[in-house]
Amino acid sequence: MISVCEVGPRDGLQNERDILPPETRADLINRLSGTGLPRIEAVSFVRDNAVPQMGGAEEVVGAIERRDGVEYSGLVLNEKGLERFNAMTLDRMNVTLGATDSFNRRNANASLDEAKERASAVVSSRPEGTTVTISVAFGCPFEGPVDPGVVSGLVDHFRGLGAEEIVLADTIGVATPGQVKTLIGDTAAEGFHGHNTRNTGYANAYAALEGGAKLLDASIGGLGGCPFAPRATGNIATEDLVYMLEGDGVETGIDLAALIAISEWLETVLGRPLEGQVYRAGASPAARST
Ligand code: ZN
Fold first, then answer.
1. To the nearest whole number, what is the mean pLDDT of the chain?
2. Residue 101 carries which DSSP code?
3. Residues 77-114 pLDDT 10s
4. For residue 195, how far is its CA from the centre of ligand 1 (angstroms)?
5. Domain boundaries, the chain
6. What is the model's pLDDT at position 208?
7. Which of 186, 85, 174 lies closest to 130, judged by CA?
8. If you measure from the C-alpha of residue 193 to the centroid of ligand 1, how many angstroms do you get, rounded to a whole number?
9. For residue 286, what pLDDT band results from cuts at 50, 70 and 90?
10. 133 alpha carbon to ligand 1 midpoint, in Å?
11. What are the catalytic residues?
12. Which residues sit with Cβ closer than 5 angstroms to ligand 1, an ion?
């Protein structure tokens, strides 16, 4: 059994043009928690004015109808975020930093060393129940290909601090399957977070499993790829991933039909087709209307 972490309410919506109010985001989370998904990344504790799509994180968390067996997480970049996280009752903290200087400067106004220090302080305060996600682990929009040795060094560093698990993220969807399998295998990272920007996302997720990953991030409907942005960067779609895995006998414990129903609902909320393909094609030819 592998774990799928649903990141649509966070990574997905954060990269959408539309800003959904906290009650709609909580509604999405509550629908997702009924599908058998073991994990949902619910919110991000960043400044509301920096990322308006993620505004009102506390309101979202307050409106979550907690369901047994589902782990709810929040994203934290620094100590300010940690304070907000600690004031909430979430199960898991996801601390993230980029693998390059330029990405951290754009994303967190910090050099790589500064971002590493900030993340270290946060992780050290709560290593249990903490995931460290290393963004742009395979390629950076500003610096190009990333040295695997740098990523390995970061993985070792955060393991040394006691971080419970490490996720390598192909944030801009540039990796190819061989690279993913090798880097996951070499670092023994527990998880992989992939975007389908260049159509390699699903093959990469599969390769991550072959490399030893036990956790895959995905976003309902492939949320996150704004069709109006010149460089769409959608996550792999959760239902497309589940279709592929279950078809190959990899158990996820997730109800595919329930996921599809949520993407159909989301399409009406956002007023446009989503990037995921399985919700439009149907789970099987028999289930498809003629
Ligand atoms: Zn992402």
1. 94
2. H
3. 999 999 999 999 999 999 999 999 999 999 889 999 99
4. 6
5. 3-287
6. 98
7. 85
8. 6
9. low
10. 10
11. 226
12. 11
